[in-house]
Amino acid sequence: MDVNAAVAAAAAIAGVLTGVIAMLAFRWSERDQKRPTRTSVPTDPVLPPGVDTVLSVLRSSAVVLDEADAVVKASSAAYALGLVRGGKLAIEPMLGMARDTRRDGEIRQVELDLPRRGTGRGEALAVSARVAPLGSRLVLLLVEDLTEARRIEAVRRDFVANVSHELKTPVGALSLLSEAVMDASDDPEAVQRFAGRMQIEATRLTNLVQELIDLSRVQNDDPLEDAEPVRVDELVAEAIDRCRHQAGAKQITMAAGGTADLRVWGHRGQLAAALGNLVENAVNYSPARTRVGIAARRVGMPGGDMIELAVTDQGIGISDKDKERIFERFYRVDPARSRATGGTGLGLAIVKHVVASHGGEVTVWSAENQGSTFTLRLPEAGVARDRASQHPDPDLDDEAGTTESSPYEPLPAPEVLP
User: Fold this and answer.
1) Which site among 12, 75, 143, 313 is 20 to 30 Å from 149 CA-CA?
2) Are 255 and 415 contacting, i.e. CB atoms less than 8 angstroms apart?
């Protein structure tokens, strides 16, 4: 009995000790878990709730910086602009703005010109940067790309300036000539001479105003509203008839070929004006006793057959540097010759807008002193009528060249029109 009692007492004592040890171990574990460590220092949330969602739908490039200037969040547009590199904000002026805003909490905004990544032409990106505090630790940077807006504004500003200059020239000439007529009222020969000059300037002014109206119309009107199948041979015949007098005075032969049974889809008046401008330029910029050819053909394209209209001359040609700008409003390859022929510098701009609004394109091949070939590529009637509705606004391409310089393959031999 004494032995059994001793064993029982020893077991009870061992159980009590085990329980005490387990309790102490549990308490020790809890204290150890609550002890601060380097990785368990309390921190605020990385981004306040909802901020990530808002940043993802912003059009601006967004960058969120922490107190160490490390990038916490950056949109894909921010990487595309080159704002963030290696997890850091790469633009020093913006980084300085972020530090100042973190220090005093004030919202700052500035416009900067940034170097464009991936180009060797030294072009700059115009951006607007706005920095604001985001909570107690973070700073939000929003960057808006203003490059395209500035370019469009520059195009429109130059257009207004050019219009003012072009209108002022003939108006001023008319004013001076009218004074000369009054002073020479007793000299019939002088009056007749000055009156002839006045007629020339009046015609130039009329042509300029008409081309401004035409350019405004093709930019604002939708050619699909009045679209119809248009016979190519009728367009060509109308363009040749428009320039027959000028060509005859210079003994220039005009010829056409390959136009039978071809139709394009679009606005007849606009297409006739575009082709007529090309033929008129070919005649005006060609020496006497040369040849201007107009040829057409059907070309298979992935989106449907296209009709190509090529106008070829044997004129002075266009240099490589001028080919990048010939479709700009009021740009002239040879200003002196344009003045002599009454050119306004708007003809090719009208051609570009007409073709683009019809879902086509215009290209040019030219070599100095060898001539030029302008090629219109337009959707064939009944094949790609919806192509024009998918084409971008051509008004945004005035500064940059809208055509590619590429040799045009020889077309079928043209047939001389009567």
Assistant:
1) 75
2) yes
